Amino acid sequence: xxxxxxxxxxxxxxxxxxxxxxxxxxxxxxxxxxxxxxxxxxxxxxxxxxxxxxxxxxxxxxxxxxxxxxxxxxxxxxxxxxxxxxxxxxxxxxxxxxxxxxxxxxxxxxxxxxxxxxxxxxxxxxxxxxxxxxxxxxxxxxxxxxxxxxxxxxxxxxxxxxxxxxxxxxxxxxxxxxxxxxxxxxxx
Length: 188
Fold this sequence. Notes:
Blueprint (H helix, E strand, L loop, with lengths): L6 H13 L1 H4 L7 H8 L9 E5 L5 H9 L5 E5 L3 H10 L5 E4 L6 H5 L4 E6 L8 H14 E11 L5 H7 L2 E7 L6 E7 L1
Parallel strand pairs: 1-2, 1-4, 2-3, 4-5
Antiparallel strand pairs: 5-7, 6-7
Helix pairs in contact: 3-4
């Protein structure tokens, strides 16, 4: 299974990783298979509002837009301004609101709405502790009562922190990704 996107996408992702390793957290974009495995854990087609933390090169963003209904909305956050600008240029979809900024500011962009599906590819284990805690603390608060948070990580170490914040945390592994990806589905 190849990586999502072509050589130029992998090059942009690698460049971003080298410039901001604590924020990007991976050398290569997530494989299409891992993206599909993760998004299969939620009912994306039924969601009215989807939020993505860590849009990166748009691997999840593209698949979310493909799966979402025509009246749904996606707010995608990417802290790397160059990656955010590129994804914004490549994905011309009125359902997408791309935010070049931190997931810590998500509530400012929700206008009081609650999120049905929250997708995070943020490298929680390499983020500064205070940032990790703020993002994880606000994640369950922005979800609808039946909302879910999907988290992809390259180690299982975040599971305990997720269990402190969510009543139900399921873990799966996507072994075809390089490296193997740990997928978490979190709900209240």
